[in-house]
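Lab channel / #folding
Pinned by the channel admin:
"Please post every new chain as: sequence first, then the structure tokens as a reply. Keep commentary short and put observations after the output so the thread stays searchable."

First post following the new format, from NK:
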Amino acid sequence: MTRAEIDVDDLLKIVLGLAVVWLLLEVLGTVLDLTFALLDALPTLIVVIIVVLIALRLADRI
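Reply from TO:
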């Protein structure tokens, strides 16, 4: 089989498959970036929760 014998439909399927893989990798990268951003913010969120709980305790709201 030579290069000239490949159908256009087969080439389009290959290109479509590569585009889908590329999009999936982009989405996965974005999800991982968001996950690591949330994990980086986790200590700050814990401190904010602790401060709020202490303030509520001192105000006799808990």
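NK: The CA atoms of residues 52 and 58 lie 10 Å apart.
TO: also worth noting, The helical segments are 8-58.
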